Amino acid sequence: xxxxxxxxxxxxxxxxxxxxxxxxxxxxxxxxxxxxxxxxxxxxxxxxxxxxxxxxxxxxxxxxxxxxxxxxxxxxxxxxxxxxxxxxxxxxxxxxxxxxxxxxxxxxxxxxxxxxxxxxxxxxxx
Length: 126
Known about the structure:
Layout: H1 9-30, H2 37-71, H3 75-125
């Protein structure tokens, strides 16, 4: 009789994580060659939006499920409501933080020559 090998769930997750890291490392080594530059840009153009959408769906699925269950509305209506709330939230966050970020970056570029001068003096002292 064949005996089945049982592996603990934690060990199987570690094996999967290790193999995923190895695959990504090997892909990184492979994509360094100039022949694969078009493939690299194509992969990045596919993976980045897919990753962002995966995170959004993963985060908002419990909220969507709760809204459907508690308010007893259809899936497409709750999805539309959640999408509108997310769009409004992104617009408000951009409106609040973009001016602050722009002033911080402009101040950094104004102060950068002074920092570089002090760094040069420090290196000369060493």
